[in-house]
Each structure stands twice: as structure tokens, then as C-alpha cells.
Design goal:
9 helices
């Protein structure tokens, strides 16, 4: 598992060699534009509705004698809560809406590396890819939610709770990596077979997903490059395991 994690990190660095190649640019621009728009909408929503939610809580629980720092704290806490929810949902939305571009990128990369024949990327194929992405995302979202809730409950146990935040981040990374690597797996496996493949390569998925999540911490630029970098990285890692 550790070796798979480390190798996945190295492949993320290796992916940088590809992102500005002429044949990659169209995928980068399309996925980057879509991802950045969604990112900006989410950030705007956090501050817009975070303020509204904060004001609702302030109106309900705060009096005129409440310290101003407490009011500010409540406003920022609501933004933090919304940010956590944003990270939880955002990665699935980005993976789904960029799936037509990232699926084609993954196949194009595999073709260039192995000489495999390229299939025709018809509209029907792209729709099928998105439907698969939605089905996979719903299943993974429910599993991730269950694991995160369980870890939050475990977090109340003394000492053990110190590690729950790291485990929650690893869980989020695992499912994000799963989504990125599935652009490679969809050409070979059905969803259940893909789940078994990822179960056998947890470290690979976590490494890919951790990079994906960290990139989104870089304002705008991270959202622009994350889908392409992690799709290339996921394809490189999966090719090594599948062959």
C-alpha cells in the first residue's frame, strides 16, 4: 500500500511532463475551464451563503452584549463548515462533468504509450461515460459519507481522536483517486470489477486523490490543472498495475 502511494505521488510529478504537450492542451483547456468555473461558483456560494447562515445563527443566539470576536468567529465557523461540505461534494461534481474530456485523455495517453488502438469517441460513448461516472459517484459518495461519520464518532475517543482528521483526509483522497483512475478502468472493467481493482491498489488511489485535493487548495490554478494532472497520473499508475 505504501509503495503504491509513493509511486502515485511520483506519477503525479511525472504527469507535469505531459500537460503542455500539444495533444494534451485541448483536454487541459476544456477540463480546466469547466473545473475552474465550478470552483469559483462553489467559493462564491461559501462566502455568500456562509454570511447568510452566519447571520441567522447570530440573530438566534447572539445578544447585544455578545463580544464582537464571538460574532466574527461564528461567521467564519459557518464558512468552515460549508468548506468541508464543499470539498466533500465538489470532487465528485468535477470528476463527473469533466469525464468526457478526461476519459478521452486517458485513452489518448494509453494509445501513445502502448500503441493500443483508439476507439471512436462518439456522443453515445461520452454519455455512457458520464452515466457510469454518476453511478460510481453516488455509490462512492454514500460509502464515503458512512466512513466519515464513523470516523467523526471515533474522534470522540481520547487519543484515537487525534488521528481521525488524517484518516478522514485519506478516505476523501481514496475516493477522489478512485474517480480519476476510473477513466482508465472504464475501458476494461465494469463498476464492480473497478472496485475490486482499487481495493487491491488502495495506496495508488489515495496517493492520486491526495494530490487532487491538495491542488484545489491552490486558488484558481489548482482547479484548472487538477483534473488533467491527476487523470494522467492515474492512467500511468493503472497501466503499471494492469500490465
Amino acid at each position: 500500500m505504501i509503495s503504491g502511494f509513493v509511486k502515485s505521488l511520483f506519477n503525479s510529478i511525472k504527469a507535469l511532463e505531459y500537460i503542455f504537450k500539444p495533444w494534451v492542451l485541448k483536454y487541459l483547456l476544456l477540463s480546466g475551464l469547466v473545473s475552474t468555473i465550478v470552483y469559483m461558483i462553489f467559493i462564491w456560494s461559501i462566502f455568500r451563503f456562509g454570511d447568510d447562515l452566519g447571520q441567522m445563527l447570530i440573530a438566534k443566539f447572539v445578544t447585544e452584549n455578545t463580544w464582537s470576536w464571538l460574532v466574527t468567529t461564528i461567521e467564519w465557523l459557518t464558512r468552515i463548515v460549508l468548506t468541508v461540505g464543499f470539498i466533500f461534494i465538489f470532487k465528485y461534481i468535477v470528476i463527473i462533468i469533466t469525464s468526457p474530456f478526461m476519459s478521452a485523455l486517458s485513452e489518448d495517453l494509453e494509445m501513445r504509450l502502448t500503441g493500443a488502438p483508439k476507439t471512436k469517441q462518439s456522443i453515445g460513448f461520452q454519455v455512457k461515460s458520464m452515466v457510469r461516472g454518476v453511478r460510481l459517484a453516488i455509490g462512492n459518495l454514500l460509502k464515503e459519507l458512512g466512513l466519515v461519520v464513523l470516523l467523526l464518532l471515533v474522534g470522540f475517543i481520547p487519543v484515537v481522536g487525534l488521528f481521525t482528521s488524517v484518516l478522514i483526509f485519506a478516505v476523501q483522497g481514496y475516493f477522489a483517486g478512485f474517480g480519476n483512475i476510473d477513466f482508465f478502468m472504464e475501458r476494461r472493467f465494469n463498476i464492480e470489477e473497478s472496485r475490486r481493482f482499487i481495493e487491491l491498489n488502495k495506496g495508488m488511489a489515495i496517493g492520486n486523490g491526495v494530490v487532487f485535493l491538495f491542488l484545489f487548495l491552490i486558488p484558481i490554478a489548482g482547479a484548472f490543472f487538477a483534473p488533467t494532472i491527476c487523470t494522467i497520473s492515474g492512467t500511468l499508475s493503472a497501466l503499471e498495475k494492469a500490465n
